[in-house]
Amino acid sequence: DASEIKGEVLVIGAGPGGYSAAFRCADLGLKTVLVERHPTLGGVCLNVGCIPSKALLHVAKVIEEAEHINHAGIKFAKPEIDLPGVAAYKSGVVKRLTDGLSAMAKMRNVTVVQGNAKFIDENNVIVEHTDVEGKQTKVSFDNCIIAAGSQSSKMSFIPHEDPRIWDSTNALEVKEVPKRLLVMGGGIIGLEMGTVYEKLGSKVDVVVRGPQVMTGTDKDIVKIYTKANEKRFNFMFKTQTQAIIPKADGIYVEFKGENAPEPQMYDAVLVAMGRTPNGLKIGLENTGVEVDEHGFISVDKQMRTKVSNIFAIGDIIGGPMLAHKAVHEGHVAAEVIAGHKVFFEPKQIPGIAYTFPEIATAGLSEIQAKEQGINYEVATFPWTASGRAIASDVSHAGMTKLIFDKDTHQVIGGAIVGDNAGELLGEISLALEMDCDAEDIGLTIHAHPTLHESVGMAAEIFHGSITDLP
Ligand code: FAD
């Protein structure tokens, strides 16, 4: 059963990049076809990424706060965890959002085709349907936007086929709470899922190859996070797994490295060691699109590949693998196709770990400022001096940090570690995009007492130290 359709624009993949691009194309009057292999729209982010992880972290936070409020003279009984109830809450959140996307696609007359798309040349793909067995549809297009995303990386030395070896998708199913969980990798995904399982009752070890979690994030920020989590996790820094052997009574893991412990048994192992783009699976060899050996597609600032009518966005082009980056790139690709002269040139792409406490960064880190030879100065405001942080019992693990160009006094980066850091970061992102200087931020009246006051305070600390205002 073969059929044919034609779109002015074909979008492959309905993750945040793909649906944003498709919707913008439709809004700009282009006849748009969106191909997605899964029955729901939303890609990794909505189905098995950003959203379900945040639903579970919300549950974890409630448990954490119930335990923590002891300090303030309130005692809750130990929470009873109804795991199917937790899973149902998470699924309900996801469904609400993915249903919303379907409705929006309909409203805009975007044609959604369910199946796997593969290029046959630079103007056609074949879609193997995943909704109707054996059905194929040929989709021809004037322009195509590839937004096929990424998946968890697999390593040859890890027995991924064992059901106790998890990737993030398995961890998000919350089918069981392992007594002992090993998290491999100290990045955002590993730490977020580790946080969830620790609150649900697992004893969690985190094995990290380097000397700190969140590689690339400034040491002073990470130090506050690590100190606050010393009891939550058993961190094994500068350590690697040497052998992972499934046995009847658990997963046997051997370690190597400076601080390697004796071999341990785990009930589950979460592999969170990066993501691999899907660029090698979509028939790009039948086009002139340039794709590297990992599967990353190269594009210019208009998201255009080497082939002038084929664009690529999101995780599949590399850079920070984040939903909001994909969305903005999607808008650029759509607008370029519609004939607008636009470019993807952000001054900052924020990144947030929704851990306890949260770690949020935007613009340059101190490491990057140093690498780039910028004459910079750092201003930090510790939350031990924040009235709101003290009143809310979160002052022990919080800091707001701004990085300024000493010559121009412009803010070039910022990081916050602390409760709600992710929400507080918005102000810094805007300040960076608008090229604010220390005076702009410091003289902005921030409400008292708030946590975001700390951003104003940090700017004032720098501003106050300036004697030679330009
Ligand atoms: P994806 O979301 O990967 O979507 C690609 C889509 O293309 C998929 O639906 C796939 O099925 C489809 N597809 C692939 N190949 C084909 C084909 N040949 N034919 C048809 N369809 C195809 N980012 C954040 O910004 N904030 C977070 O809090 C956050 N949390 C995360 C938590 C987890 C556990 C994970 C795994 C990721 C998280 N991310 C987060 C990252 C975020 O999910 C990705 O950056 C984002 O989804 C990338 O969007 P995308 O559009 O590039 O691709």
UniProtKB/TrEMBL annotation:
Reactions catalysed: N(6)-[(R)-dihydrolipoyl]-L-lysyl-[protein] + NAD(+) = N(6)-[(R)-lipoyl]-L-lysyl-[protein] + NADH + H(+)
**Among its keywords, does the record have Ion transport?**
no
Binding residues for NAD(+): 185-192, 274
* Keywords for the protein's UniProt record, in alphabetical order: Disulfide bond, FAD, Flavoprotein, Lipoyl, NAD, Nucleotide-binding, Oxidoreductase, Redox-active center
EC numbers listed for it are 1.8.1.4
Which terms does the record give in the GO molecular function aspect?
Answer: dihydrolipoyl dehydrogenase (NADH) activity; flavin adenine dinucleotide binding
Enumerate the residues binding FAD: 54, 315, 321-324
Q: Which residues form the signal peptide?
A: none
Q: Name one GO biological process term.
A: 2-oxoglutarate metabolic process
Query: Which family is this protein grouped under?
Result: Belongs to the class-I pyridine nucleotide-disulfide oxidoreductase family.
Name it: Dihydrolipoyl dehydrogenase
Organism this protein belongs to: Arcobacter arenosus
The top of its lineage is: Bacteria, Pseudomonadati, Campylobacterota, Epsilonproteobacteria, Campylobacterales
Parent protein range shown? 114 to 583 of 591
